[in-house]
Amino acid sequence: MLLTVWHGFTAWRRGRPFWAGLFVAAGALIILFPPFVGVKLGDMVISIKTIGGVSALLIGALLAICAVSLWLQPKFRLAAGLVTVLLSLVALVVTNLGGFLAGTVLSLLGGALAVAWTDEPKKPKEAKGSKKARRENAAVEPELAPETTQRVQPT
């Protein structure tokens, strides 16, 4: 049963930009985390309560929406990827260095993966010097086919 679930998840994952969504979701969580969590070190509480908290909430939520859309609607991957890249660059300036640079870097990586992802299978490449490749090139482009020439030997 577990194997069947794993195979189903793998088939679902391969049909969409899964890793892009995962990186964007991780970046969103890292951008959301610092302004809303107080870290307690002994008697001291470290808390970042600035105007960056409001922008972190907005940017983190929008990045999370982009991550979910990458997983659920892969046809919007280009738009979600571009919005992710723009939001992560804005987060760098507006929110605590974009989650102390980690959130920005993860979101940029996820956005780049989303823009680059395609669901078309790779076409196998033929070797450059193979007979089949030369035959196909000659059939498609007869004017570029090699001509027979005579060599003249120097005397």
UniProtKB/TrEMBL annotation:
Basic and acidic residues: compositionally biased ranges: 120-129
**Keyword annotations from UniProtKB, A to Z:** Membrane, Transmembrane, Transmembrane helix
* Pfam families membership: DUF6114
Q: Which domain of life is it from?
A: Bacteria
The portions of this protein that span the membrane are 18-39, 51-71
In Swiss-Prot or TrEMBL terms, this protein is called Uncharacterized protein
Has keyword Transmembrane helix?
yes
User: Where are the residues of the annotated region Disordered?
Assistant: 120-155
